[in-house]
Amino acid sequence: MAESKTILIAEDSSVILNLTKKILELQQYRILTAKNGGEVMKQVEQNKIDAILMDLNIPVKSGMECTREIRAHKDQQIANIPIIAVTGNANNYTMEDFKEAGINEYLPKPLDFDMLVQTVKKYTVK
């Protein structure tokens, strides 16, 4: 495999974060993490990220706010990072809300790890 792709996991639950991280590392992804919306923006500014797994209910700035901020970014490379929303209460949102915010895809919690790997691959294979 060529250089490994970098995935940013924005998740405030340590358990979900560590599980997701392990599964993606087994797939040879390089993993960066953020426990809140402020850290998401820092990571995005400082690293080349190939995709983001965005929990919608993170502190400081919600996943939706972060997504909108990323989509409005002046650097096109940052503005176009694929964002996969991860949430336990998708019922609070419609697909229209996701599209309007700029979310590429959504995965429900509890995470189906096969689906997770498949979805991440879909956005990182060039």
- The count of β-strands is 5
Report the radius of gyration as a whole number of Å. 13 Å
| Total domain units | 1
At CATH level 3, the topology is: Rossmann fold
Q: How many helix segments?
A: 6
Task: Work out the oligomeric state of the chains in this entry.
Answer: single chain
Mean pLDDT: 94
The SSE order reads EHEHEHHEHEH
Shape: globular
The assigned CATH architecture is 3-Layer(aba) Sandwich
Given as residue ranges, the uncertain stretches (5+ residues, pLDDT < 50) are none
* Assigned CATH superfamily: Response regulator
User: Which CATH first-tier class would you pick?
Assistant: Alpha Beta
Percentage of β-strand residues? 15-25%
Kindly name the structural category.
alpha/beta
Q: Kindly report how far apart the N and C termini lie.
A: 12 Å
Domain Response regulatory: 6-124
Keywords: Phosphoprotein, Two-component regulatory system
Modified residues (4-aspartylphosphate): 55
Pfam family, one: Response_reg
Overview of this protein structure:
It is built from 6 helices and 5 strands. It has one domain: Rossmann fold (3-Layer(aba) Sandwich), CATH 3.40.50.2300. Helix 5 links the parallel strand 4 and strand 5. The chain has 126 residues and is an alpha/beta fold. It starts with 5 loop residues before the first strand and ends with a helix. Strands 2-1-3-4-5 form a 5-stranded parallel beta sheet, sandwiched between helices. Pfam families: Response_reg.
